[in-house]
Amino acid sequence: MNKSLILALFFSVTLGSISFGQISLAYGEGSEKLAFINENRFPGLEEPVPYGPLSFRISDNHFWVADSVAGKIIKVDFKGKIVREFGALSTAAKKPKPAFKNDPCLQILIEDIAFEKGPYGSVKSVWVSDSFENKLIKIDTTGKILKEIKHPAFIQLSRIEIGQGGHIFVADKGAQKIFIFDHKYSLIGAVHWEWSGFAVSGADDKLHRVFFTEESGKLTLVTTDTKNIVLREIELELPIHLNPELWWVDEFNEDFVLTYTPKTGFAGKFVVVKIGFNGKVKQQSEMDAPIAMNRYIEHSDFEKLWIGKANFNEAPEGKFEIVPFKFSATNNRR
């Protein structure tokens, strides 16, 4: 038999259905599984949406998946192998007693995660946005709690980003603000936010948000510094749409990525667009919308994209997947 064919057969057997850059994790309780809350697990529970892993990030050539309900982080390599699993809860934390029938007894709900990196770009610590206790938790990669931030202005924490300059940005859906903390964990600002995603870029930690302008009827990307001084405004050439969300800004290539719902309304799909700093669409495509995820699209060095695929209503059936994503259309206008 041909040697290359033997090798191909070997890898197809050992790796199974896992392809490079795509992972699949089972739902369930315990190690190497993702916890969930839905009618299947807690019959009669009146939750508006089901819960499962709400966020994933990419760093150090690994996926980092938030096991949001169980309060832990699962680190997975690009071949689908789980290489580390660590919690964001204090070891002294006691699980509460059920307050009612089928009470999930939550202690934490990880909405999002972000990384504090060392001098060579490797992950030094992980910041967790906990919407159950409305606090920020800093942990090392063994799960040791290094810092907690609570603030009376916190109402419903959502996404979090850590800038290269050390600033912490956390979006709050209830307060409709992005709170900004410096590297000493002092609150230095709170700016308006419209549930429309945000991004942080550059060594000076520029904050990017999108706003709808009634006068023009268009969406505008607004870039500010940490003192909320406007540095740049870009009017976007987009069709009429709903619920835009900004994900990241690539200063080097002068573009950014956002998603939105078509004007016809939500039908299980989001439109994904890459837009240049001239406001024109460079690339676009559609993606299946995962139910209830907070952060469902991520990049590696801005070049390769991945999306989360999940249906928390069906768990424990099915699996949580992270799969490669490519734009299907390119606009050559610059």
Explained architecture:
The protein is mainly beta and 334 residues long. It has two domains: 22-193 and 290-327, Thrombin, subunit H (Beta Barrel); 195-289. It is built from one helix and 25 strands. The strands form six sheets. The chain has a five-stranded antiparallel sheet, with no helix packed on it. The longest helix is centred in the first third of the chain and has 13 residues, at 3-15. The termini are far apart. Mean pLDDT is 91; it is low at 1-19.
Brief digest:
The protein has 334 residues and is mostly beta strands.
Which descriptors would you attach to this protein?
25 strands; 4-stranded antiparallel β-sheet; single chain; Thrombin, subunit H; 5-stranded antiparallel β-sheet; 1 helix; 334 residues; disordered N terminus; 2 domains
Please specify the SSE layout and strand pairing:
Blueprint lengths: L2 H13 L7 E4 L29 E4 L2 E6 L4 E6 L4 E6 L22 E8 L5 E8 L4 E5 L5 E5 L7 E6 L5 E5 L4 E5 L5 E6 L6 E3 L4 E8 L4 E7 L5 E6 L5 E10 L4 E8 L6 E8 L4 E8 L8 E4 L3 E6 L9 E7 L3 E2 L4
Antiparallel strand pairs: 1-24, 2-3, 3-4, 4-5, 6-7, 7-8, 8-9, 10-11, 11-12, 12-13, 14-15, 15-16, 16-17, 18-19, 19-20, 20-21, 21-25, 22-23, 23-24
